[in-house]
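Dear colleagues,

As part of the handover before I leave the project, I'm documenting each prediction I ran so the next person doesn't have to rerun anything. This entry is a single chain, and its sequence is reproduced below.
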Amino acid sequence: MRHIDFAPLHRSTVGFDRLFSLLDNIAPPEQAASYPPYNIEKTGDNAFRISMAIAGFSEDDLSIESKENTLTVTGDKGEEDKNNEADFLFRGIAGRTFERRFQLADHVEVKNANLENGLLHIELVREIPDAMKPRQIAIGKSKVAKVKKLAA
């Protein structure tokens, strides 16, 4: 029997919780690890946080863009760091260029981002417009029912 791991899509999307619960046994398992490593946390009912481990990158090396339900985080060290290479005996801290994309559900917006201790934290919130929120409809008596009673 084949076991299927739907975790790869959980890792790159935010706000599709119910959809992934329904489709949890369909997607193939992830084949390779991705760079940079990251976490997606649910910090509230409609709040999320993406934390990415990007040691060695400064704020100037990073670009964060949100467009059409896609959040793109790009890191590029620049030419000056490439020209100033030291003679490494072992290089375990990756400083390579990266681009990481996350699919956002409808109405999920980026609130802020900050870089602290080698971790990039991106705060997201789902704000559903009032027109789309469920509302209670009052049930009243029909005028047709009153007319039928009078005719009888």
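The chain has a mean pLDDT of 78. The CA atoms of residues 49 and 101 lie 14 Å apart.

All the best with the project,
I.
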